[in-house]
Amino acid sequence: MTGTVKLPLKEIEQMEHPxxxxxRSKQYDPDLLADNLYPPLPFSGNMLxxxxxxxxxxxxxxxxxxxxxxxxxxxxxxxxxxxxKLENRRGKYSWEEKAKILEYLKNNNxxxxxxxxxxxxxxxxxxxxxxxxAIFRELSQPLREMIETGHIDFKTAALVRKFDDDIFLYIxxxxxxxxxxxxxxxxxxxxxxxxxxxxxxxxxxxxKNILSSENPLKTVRELRFPKLSRMEKKYNALHSxxxxxxxxxxxxxxxxxxxxxxxxxxxxxxxxxxxxxRKIQLIQEHIxxxxxxxx
Amino acid sequence: xxxxxxxxxxxxKIYITADVKNTVYAERILKRLPGxxxxxxxxxxxxxxxxxxxxxxxxxxxxxxxxxxxxxxQGHICCNYLTIDxxxxxxxxxxxxxxxxxxxxxxxxxxxxxxxxxxxxLEIAGLNSGRTIRIGTGEVGDSLLFDPxxxxxxxFIEAFSESPNIFFELKTKTNFVEHLLSIPEKGNAVIGFxxxxxxxxxxxxxxxxxxxxxxxxxxxxxxxxxxxxxxxDPIFLYPEWKKDYLKLVDTIFNEYxxxxxxxxxxxxxxxxxxxxxxxxxxxxxxxxxEFVPSKDKKYRYIQKTRTAMYKSIADRIAGFGKDIPIYMxxxxxxxxxxxxxxxxxxxxxLSDIFNHTRGL
Lengths: 295, 360
Hints:
The complex is a heterodimer of chains A (295) and B (360).
Chain A: E1 4-8, H1 9-13, H2 30-34, E2 41-44, E3 47-48, H3 52-60, E4 65-70, H4 76-87, H5 95-107, H6 118-121, H7 128-138, H8 141-148, H9 154-159, H10 166-173, H11 179-195, H12 200-212, H13 216-224, H14 226-243, E5 248-251, E6 262-265, H15 270-284, H16 287-291
Parallel strand pairs in A: 2-4
Antiparallel strand pairs in A: 1-4, 2-3, 5-6
Helix pairs in contact in A: 5-7, 10-12, 11-13, 13-14
Chain B: H1 4-10, E1 13-17, H2 24-32, E2 38-41, E3 56-60, E4 67-69, E5 82-84, E6 87-88, H3 99-102, E7 108-111, H4 114-127, E8 133-136, H5 147-150, H6 153-160, E9 166-172, H7 178-181, E10 190-194, H8 198-204, H9 211-223, E11 227-235, H10 241-255, E12 263-270, E13 273-274, H11 275-281, E14 291-293, E15 298-301, H12 303-318, E16 326-328, H13 333-340
Parallel strand pairs in B: 1-2, 1-3, 3-7, 5-8, 8-9, 9-10, 10-11, 11-12, 12-16
Antiparallel strand pairs in B: 4-5, 6-7, 13-15, 14-15
Helix pairs in contact in B: 10-12, 12-13
């Protein structure tokens, strides 16, 4: 290992950049750079190991040279570790960056070591980033962009990755949905498509119909939970048949899970109370129809 | 899969805590897995992080309370089963296994000091004279998956053989019963087999024994003096569920001719899961049916659907022996009323099984 040397910016830029893996959008602080406060850029032979953000900032600040330090005798994995240590953003790497890290490892035939890098990349010891970064690499460009711009989360994107890209355009152009509504809609939609084995050629049209319906979330819920939705509709019809405009509400347990119904009504006179009680007594004759929803 | 090379191939490392290093069980594993590297350690915390996974086996002594109760879940009826943690962790790899959510970074733990646990169970049995004590080792692991290596279950069976109120159950998805057959005094020992149709076992139950192997083992166990039990749990809903599960019931009685009087109980439980399991498992077909949240925050099939499933299976079983106790695992009062017309305390033959054990 040698000491620090000043190298011309042009020379640094012309070096090989296989480790240019990190997001450059957040610039290195120009004030710190003006005061020469930055770590020396590590390089090995003709390869820059880390410091691309500093190079960008240096160019913008009109600097012509930067302090560098040559690292010798290290392999691709060690060089990556050095870059990750200097980057020092454990737990904050984007999927795009993680996918690039994985690609670098594969290009250097050290793919199986990815799990061992978890300590430099994630906060905990969860190694699932390796599997997920591989999934991310396979996503279409529009989906990757949607993740990076915060329009969709990775988990949902992974669920819907096999759909045509048109689908995502419909969602973006369709009714305004919040992030969580979008996630719910796509989750229900993809689960229903998978369960009902809906052909890929029909999914775009189906989603278009859902999004153009009056209440897309209600419509997609009916697709995902057909039995439950049918029960709810049937129950509402039954309720209307016997209790429409009666001022009495008989409510089943949530999701028809339980054994008790609740009855709710208000009254404002003795006569009014008698009417309500009479109505409830009439319902008693049909109570099996209500109870059948729970049995 | 019932041979020592199977274990030798699977395990990378053995750790033995110093307090059990001279036990016959520690000696047994070192003799039976001679090529597997081992270390004697003071305590579990001495295992390096890199070995904290299911390829590591830790032989130690039980810590804390040696006998527990099935934790049950809020709003659901629990059968008050007692548990002994003998083998903690499982390598069968069932896709629906809830243990995968919380035993992720743990070695397989073997509590190789059965005397403490036996003593405690006998104490409890004494306090509950005349009441049935149901106790098993299948709560946090498969009771028999590693048992051929250690032969710990036999020690319990023999120790409880003279206690008329202890029903000691070994619950498994394997067919590893050979090493138990020659035990002379079996008392009320029960070998319990978890069952699913073969297509489900193939898809969801990892390296578990085939259903035919499990049933053949059940027959062998029954013929050699054991009680047996069957656990239809988890029962999955899919288009052909009814045909497949009813055929499975028929197979037990018709093909394997297991006598009803040797079947000490049969339990049923439809597939349920906490939200975390779905997150962890990712996209899997078993989560695509219609599930609704229950009081215990687990997701279950719609109540009406569950009722139909339980009724079909229970009716089929009852057709082969009306006196076989059938119960549901972790189900609500509503389901009990729907399926059996009442809760366990009101059902003859079940009230005894659902006893609340004193002394714990």
